[in-house]
Design a protein that fits this description.
Elements (H helix, E strand, L loop, with lengths): L7 H51 L5 H5 L2 E2 L4 E6 L16 E6 L7 H4 L24 E12 L2 E12 L2
Antiparallel strand pairs: 1-2, 2-3, 3-4, 4-5
Bound molecules: calcium ion.
The site of calcium ion has 8 residues, from loops.
Length: 167
């Protein structure tokens, strides 16, 4: 028998190969979309953090804590929250807002974040870095604007850190 066309077996094999190939393509497209989403979210976090830091910098120096200090933690950090649209808030985030302004008033607080701001550090100008709360006497304020959000790959965060002094 002279059969110049596809046999059924060849046809099935071809369909199987095409199906596997197209699964690979779909997977690549999904991965690219995920990366786009991740970079989009990081962009959203950066934009909002920059916007809030600009507002903080424009705030009168003596009003910084009354404006951005909603609650004082036991570590000596004033905290307030701000909303960041289009980011998924972490389930563990108590105030339900992805953004936070942190103002450190404990000269002795030594963390990964305050370390980069030169802590332990004299904030009230008495020459010593020993005060646990300089809320009423500060000459310099360390401000951290932080955005923390959840993604399908895990938690992400972005922050800006600065020292603000009276001008
Ligand atoms: Ca001091």
């Amino acid at each position: 028998m002279n059969n110049s066309g596809f046999s059924l077996l060849e046809l099935l094999a071809t369909i199987a190969v095409m199906a596997i190939t197209s699964m690979g393509v779909t997977s690549v497209i999904l991965t690219c979309t995920d990366l786009d989403m991740t970079s989009y979210q990081t962009g959203v976090a950066m934009d909002k953090a920059n916007e809030i830091m600009e507002m903080v910098r424009k705030t009168d120096f003596t009003s910084l804590i009354s404006t951005y200090g909603a609650t004082l933690t036991t570590e000596g950090v004033w905290v307030s929250g701000f909303d960041v649209p289009n980011l998924e808030v972490r389930a563990t985030d108590l105030d339900g807002m992805a953004g936070k302004v942190l103002i450190v008033v404990n000269e002795t607080l030594y963390t990964e974040e305050t370390f980069t701001l030169g802590f332990p550090r004299d904030l009230n100008g008495d020459g010593m870095a020993t005060s646990l709360d300089v809320t009423a006497s500060y000459k310099i304020l360390p401000v951290i604007v932080k955005v923390e959000w959840a993604t399908k790959f895990g938690d992400r965060e972005y922050d800006l850190r600065t020292l603000i002094a009276r001008r």
